[in-house]
Structures are given as structure tokens and as C-alpha cells.
């Protein structure tokens, strides 16, 4: 993964403490943790932070989590974490962490999947791949440029859609693969070319995020819709949450 964004100079990242300010349930097994930083650093939408836990015996475990919040100059970030079975860090965050706890983080990291906020972007996310794309959408709205982005989210059911009403309505299209909401014009089913092709305008960068299988399928559909390979950027979420 490229960790040196062209839009920002190379710098040394240090571990810093972060205080849990709030915890919010997004979907079954998914929570957003808002963290207060001691050394605020402006992130780009699409970047991530590494979160480290240290046990009393010195054992450490760390995982990388995409930032869900838009950069707004405040010394805070939001990380949305899916609870994974046997996931040391995610289990601790879901089962143990409470408001007021102090964690360690390092970031922001990542350049290849970061959006500059000024060029057209097509955002395609599946499952937990909604997280970094939500940061891009939030940034576009906060800067008054929602026209720059179009977003398609593929989830199993309406309950698996993160961030409440933020991911409904223009410029977001939601595709449900198992159960569609009542009155939905599109029946439940896998993502297809007919879903993606109308969102392609030409000249945009496509950001694809999700499981390896979802990312590969979405990239093939984008190519079939006319998006050149060099304009497709992919972030895959594996079992570690990275």
C-alpha cells in the first residue's frame, strides 16, 4: 500500500494517545468510535489510522482502520469498526472500550486511496467498505461540492447500511443483495453493470472498497462501463480489518 500521498510531504508518524469521546452503533456488530487526539493531524478522505493495544505484560496488537469522518480541523477522528470473531482489537473495542478510555493511534496513513477533494470521484463500496467512502462523501458535502461525487453502496439488507440517512438520497445509490426495503424499485440481488453504468460520467477516479471478492467484481463492472484501469483505485478489507 502506498503511504506517501502526492498531495502531502513525507513526514514521520508518531504514536499518540487518543481518548474515546463517544461510541455509536451503526449496524449489527458495527460501531463508530470518536476519538480525541493529542496531536491533531489533518487527514485526507480515504486515509486510515493504526490503532495499537498494549497489555500489562507488554504484548501488543494493532490493526488499521479507515477514518470515517471528514477532515474539519478539529483534533478528533471517527473510526468505524466491525466486530470480528477472534479479532483481538475489534473484540476489545466492542466488548471492553468505553467513553474515557485512552488508546494509542498512529496516522494518518495512505496515499493511493486518498481523495483530493477537488476532482470528480465515483465511490463504490461493499459492506465495511462504506467507511472510507463515507469520509469522502462527508467532505464533499462539508465543502459544498457534493456534485463532485457519486456513490454506490452494496449491502445485504437495509440494517447493514451505515450512518443512518447520510447514505440515502442523492448522490448515493444503495443496492441490497439479500433483502430490499419495502417499495424499492430494484429487487434484491448482486451488483450489476446496470447499477454502475449510469453513474459513470467519464473523467472521474473510481474508488472501490470492500472484500477482495467484491472489489474484484466491482472493478470488472467499472471496466465494462468504460472506466480505464488507471482511474480505478481499490482498497480491500481483509479479516484483520486493515
TrEMBL record:
Protein name: FAD-binding oxidoreductase
PROSITE patterns reported in the protein's UniProt record: FAD_FR (PS51384)
Keywords: 2Fe-2S, Iron, Iron-sulfur, Metal-binding
Names of the cofactor(s): FAD
Record-linked SUPFAM superfamilies: Ferredoxin reductase-like, C-terminal NADP-linked domain (SSF52343), Riboflavin synthase domain-like (SSF63380)
Domain of life: Bacteria
InterPro entries named among the record's database cross-references: Cbr1-like_FAD-bd_dom, FAD-bd_FR_type, FNR_nucleotide-bd, MRET, Riboflavin_synthase-like_b-brl
All residue ranges annotated as the FAD-binding FR-type domain in the record: 13-115
Amino acid at each position: 500500500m502506498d503511504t506517501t500521498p502526492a498531495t502531502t510531504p513525507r513526514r514521520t508518524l508518531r504514536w499518540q494517545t487518543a481518548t474515546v469521546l463517544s461510541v455509536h452503533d451503526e449496524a449489527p456488530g458495527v460501531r463508530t468510535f470518536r476519538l480525541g487526539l493529542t496531536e491533531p493531524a489533518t487527514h485526507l478522505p480515504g486515509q486510515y489510522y493504526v490503532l495499537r493495544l498494549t497489555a500489562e505484560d507488554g504484548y501488543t496488537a494493532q490493526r488499521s482502520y479507515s477514518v470515517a469522518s471528514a477532515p474539519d480541523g478539529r483534533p478528533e477522528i471517527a473510526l468505524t469498526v466491525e466486530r470480528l470473531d477472534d479479532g483481538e482489537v475489534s473484540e476489545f473495542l466492542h466488548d471492553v472500550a468505553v467513553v474515557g478510555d485512552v488508546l494509542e493511534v498512529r496516522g494518518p496513513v495512505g496515499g493511493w486511496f486518498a481523495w483530493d477533494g477537488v476532482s470528480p470521484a465515483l465511490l463504490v463500496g461493499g459492506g465495511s467498505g462504506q467507511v472510507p467512502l463515507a469520509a469522502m462523501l462527508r467532505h464533499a458535502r462539508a465543502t459544498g461540492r457534493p456534485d463532485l461525487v457519486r456513490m454506490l453502496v452494496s449491502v445485504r439488507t437495509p440494517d447493514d447500511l451505515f450512518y443512518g440517512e447520510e447514505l440515502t438520497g442523492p448522490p448515493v445509490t444503495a443496492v441490497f443483495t439479500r433483502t430490499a426495503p419495502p417499495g424499492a424499485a430494484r429487487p434484491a440481488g448482486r451488483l450489476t453493470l446496470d447499477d454502475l453504468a449510469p453513474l459513470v460520467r467519464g473523467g472521474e477516479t473510481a474508488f472501490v472498497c470492500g472484500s477482495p471478492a467484491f472489489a474484484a467484481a466491482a472493478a470488472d463492472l467499472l471496466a465494462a462501463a468504460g472506466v480505464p484501469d488507471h482511474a480505478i483505485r481499490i482498497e480491500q478489507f481483509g479479516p484483520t480489518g486493515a
